[in-house]
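Running low. Invent one:
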Amino acid sequence: MDTDADRLEAIKSLGGQCVHHDSGEFWAIFDNGYLGVSAADLDVEERGPRLTCRTCDVESLRKDTSVTVNGADYRIARAEPDGTGMTTLILRE
């Protein structure tokens, strides 16, 4: 994926959906499954909702911003940009 347009096309082709927030909307892939995290010698399991989206769509969104996915409301707990133009938004209910 070289451009933001390519990233958007990939999100849509992988079952992405439109996510709404107070100042607009963006496309993202919603996931509410298992996430394994390793820190030093400690493995931690985390379960919870998250969105995979284009960084350019969410750069202005801050912690505690409300987003609506499939009619359910969440708040952004943190953003994790991956350096390739994509960001994972960790959500909380």
Notes: The chain has one domain: 4-92. Strands lie at 17-21, 24-31, 34-39, 42-47, 50-54, 66-69, 72-81, 86-92. The mean pLDDT is 91. The first helix runs from residue 4 to 13.
